[in-house]
Amino acid sequence: MMKQNTESKVSWIYSTIKCFCKRHPEFTERGIRHNIFFEETNGLKESGAIVRNGGRILIHEERFFAWIEKRSLGGDA
After folding, report:
1. 15: phi > 0 → left, psi -120 to 50 → alpha, else beta; which?
2. C-alpha torsion 76→16→37→61, nearest 10
3. pLDDT, tens digit, for every residue of 32-60?
């Protein structure tokens, strides 16, 4: 009998701002940094999409896109 692989795949990716923008060219580094600067007022902080690790800022892609969707539906300013 074959053993089934029960390991779950990771459904999220952390990226630096630069790597995120290379993978998703529709976003600019300047635009991402602008949103991070105003994260307290635009809902980005609450979304959990931005993680700070040492001196690096990482983007949790799944949460970032959920934040974008919420904004496009009028959820946050």
Report:
1. beta
2. 0
3. 999 999 999 999 999 999 999 999 999 99
One DSSP character per residue, 47-77 reads HT-EEEETTEEEEEHHHHHHHHHHHHTTS--
Token pair in block for residue 64: 């970032």
Side-chain half-sphere CA neighbours of 46 within 13 A: 11
- How many whole angstroms separate alpha carbon 25 and alpha carbon 5? 35
Per-residue model confidence as pLDDT tens digits over 5-35? 555 555 568 999 999 999 999 999 999 999 9
Which residues make beta-bridge pairs with 23? none
What is the torsional sign of CA 50, 58, 14, 73? Answer: positive
Integer Cα distance of 21 and 62 in angstroms? 14
DSSP labels, 3-25: PP--PPPP---EEEHHHHHHH-T
